[in-house]
Design goal:
The protein is an alpha/beta fold. It has a domain of 164 residues: 3-Layer(aba) Sandwich (Rossmann fold). It is built from 8 helices and 10 strands. Helix 6 runs parallel beside helix 7. One of its GO terms (molecular function) is ATP binding.
Length: 244
Amino acid sequence: MSNENMTNEKRQAMNSQSNIVLEAKNVHRRFDDGRNQVDVLRGLDLSVQQGEFVSVIGTSGSGKSTLLHVLGGLDTPTQGEIFLKGQRFDTLKESERGHQRNLHLGFVYQFHHLLPEFNALENVCMPLMLRQGTTFLEVKKKAEKLLEQVGLSHRMEHKPGELSGGERQRVALARALVTDPDLILADEPTGNLDRQTAQGIFSLLKELQTDRQMAMLIVTHDESLAQSADRILHMRDGAWFNAE
């Protein structure tokens, strides 16, 4: 079929499909310790479009963090399929999943997970240094620019122990962005911060996501912070539900 003869509906469907960064189909995750089986995720479907900001809201124990780990390839589903940039993701070998994560995904956690023996600049540099063909000078320049963008140009040489909670989370955000990911996955990124600092970090996340036109999926229990998302999904007992 030529482009001239293609229907508008067909063209829109194809464009929509090509803009999907991450897709989950009928995802289940069951944990089995030999005596008990716990179904943490129960048949979830999800797609995140390029440039879209999605919040997943749920109470503690609803399965939010497990969902993020499965979507990000840090865990594998018991049943279902995960697609990253149109390619099957969950069935890849661990080494290849790690490679795809580094190419396409950035992670921000509730606890920053910065390496304490390295300063802010060195922590931000690390994900990009894993890529072949990058020089330290190129990486350093990019990391410096990102730290400036998150308001930490004056704290680059400080180690995590010398930074406040909000500053450490800004470093973690810069680290997630240094590889130019297609999608940021954030797990309660403000959950360990006071209200004012949390609002500042969330606003920065939204600003950077908009500027870079990347997708962002944030899981949180804080509905007030989630309101700025393009789409809000509610999760309970490992499944979606209509909060209304």
